[in-house]
Write a structure and sequence with these properties.
about 270 residues, globular, 10 helices, alpha/beta, D-Maltodextrin-Binding Protein, domain 2, six-stranded mixed sheet, 13 strands, 2 domains
């Protein structure tokens, strides 16, 4: 059986997190018997280039590009974050964060200031942000921020921009936020959440189109029985099977924002 790719670039937010993902993938490979080549594909390499590979077996992909991809990518598993805020479901939020020493108490307090973003194709770092902000726009105030800061490309870089004073508010994938709290507490202690979006389907592990479906199902079963100690090191409770239909409605939120005259954040 040829080795296929496992990758957690989206959630390898710190060296400790990357090492924990490697331990998990090694356990998955051993328990399933599926040989996995664990690749880093670290920033600044483009995620789109990773997702185009024909040999993916268990690689994280953002739900929005997954739903928009015309290829029949194979859902493998979705993480269930550990914190009670997730309700034991494979969901996540976008957290709007500000510096502790700022005067901002609500998200509306940051309007007219600077807002960071990751990349426009990201759900948590752009689309979910825009969808959430739609509720605050009015005909008299169609533009909420004076300036956008980006693309900063990754959630970690959004946090770093905030801590450095390069932006006033930053959106953060909440699972990335959990992992950063775990592995980079000196940075996260300098910030606080002022608002969060509604829950969304969490990014999922996928296999390439044309993958062996029996092998993908075997990997799904193996992920769902991953040991608690390996999951806790990743701020996770467990993994759940993933289904394409869970993500199907995500592109509609992007389209709704464009129809509302809000194609870009600022």
């Amino acid at each position: 059986m040829a080795a296929r790719i496992a990758n957690a670039r989206m959630y390898s937010v710190a060296p400790g997190a990357a090492a924990a993902w490697r331990r998990l993938f090694e356990w998955i490979a051993q328990e399933s018997g599926v040989p996995l080549e664990i690749v880093d594909h670290a920033f600044p390499a483009k995620l789109e280039a990773l997702w185009e590979r024909p040999d993916l077996a268990a690689t994280f992909m953002c739900g929005l590009p997954f739903a928009k991809d015309p290829r029949p990518l194979v859902p493998v598993a979705a993480p269930v974050p550990l914190s009670p805020r997730y309700g034991g479901k494979p969901v996540y939020f976008t957290d709007f964060i500000v510096k502790n020493d700022s005067s901002y108490r609500t998200l509306a307090d940051t309007f007219g200031k600077r807002l960071a973003y990751t990349i426009p194709s990201s759900h948590s770092g752009y689309n979910a942000v825009r969808h959430h902000l739609l509720r605050y726009r009015t005909p008299e105030r169609p533009k909420l921020y004076a300036e956008t800061v980006g693309p900063v490309f990754t959630p970690r870089r959004a946090l770093e921009a905030l801590v450095a004073g390069a932006t006033d508010v930053a959106p953060l994938d909440s699972l990335c936020h959990d992992l950063l709290r775990l592995y980079e507490p000196e940075m996260t202690r300098q910030t606080r959440i002022i608002e969060s979006t509604d829950p969304w389907p969490v990014p999922l592990l996928v296999a390439s189109a044309g993958s062996d479906l029996e092998q993908a199902a075997l990997l799904t079963r193996t992920f769902t029985r991953a040991p608690a100690e390996l999951c806790r090191a990743l701020a996770l409770e467990s993994f759940a099977p993933a289904e394409a239909k869970t993500y199907a409605a995500m592109p509609a939120t992007e389209e709704a924002a464009v129809r509302a005259g809000y194609p870009v954040l600022a």
